[in-house]
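JOB MANIFEST
job_type = single_chain_structure
chain_count = 1
residues = 66
[input]
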Amino acid sequence: DFGYEFDDPRVNPTGGAIALGHPIGASGVIYFGEMVHYLKNANKKYGVQLMCGGYGVGIATIVEAL
């Protein structure tokens, strides 16, 4: 028990890199597509995707469903 309820909004409900795998060069688009589908299916308006790259590079993308 890690102290989180399953419906805790801070927990990714569809897993993450370990659950989905990590194909080099393709993981970003996989996670982005998953987030867009989740926003639509869960009737949510905003999503944030955080990605890290080699050598300390990082990026955050904020998506608004219209």
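[summary]
Strands lie at 46-52, 58-64.
Residues 18 and 30 are 13 Å apart (CA to CA).
exit_status = 0
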